């Protein structure tokens, strides 16, 4: 199931959609991953179209997703430092 939010439709602000986002995008999710999954769901034949879609989707991301990513950053940074820049699993966050 894909929920596209870039068109600003009222249905994308529904309680059901907000609950789905909270359930499917936990605190440890990367904003870049969200952007990539939405924008790359369709093919772009020119770079300008890709840039335009990235800008639109970025501006339409719900603030709670952005806030969770920002609030989670110190924990991610600490884990990265503990791993001396190496790999660590999501469930270690």
From TrEMBL:
Q: Which organism is it from?
A: Ancylostoma duodenale
**Which molecular function GO terms apply here?**
nucleic acid binding
The protein here is known as Tc1-like transposase DDE domain-containing protein
Q: Which InterPro entries match?
A: RNaseH_sf
């Amino acid at each position: 199931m894909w929920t596209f939010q870039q068109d600003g439709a009222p249905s994308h602000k529904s309680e059901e959609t907000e609950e789905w986002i909270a359930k499917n995008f936990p605190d440890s999710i990367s904003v870049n991953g969200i952007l990539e999954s939405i924008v790359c769901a369709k093919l772009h034949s020119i770079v300008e179209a890709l840039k335009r879609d990235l800008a639109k989707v970025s501006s339409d991301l719900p603030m709670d997703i952005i806030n969770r990513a920002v609030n989670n950053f110190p924990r991610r940074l600490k884990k990265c430092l503990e791993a001396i820049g190496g790999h660590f699993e999501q469930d270690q966050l």
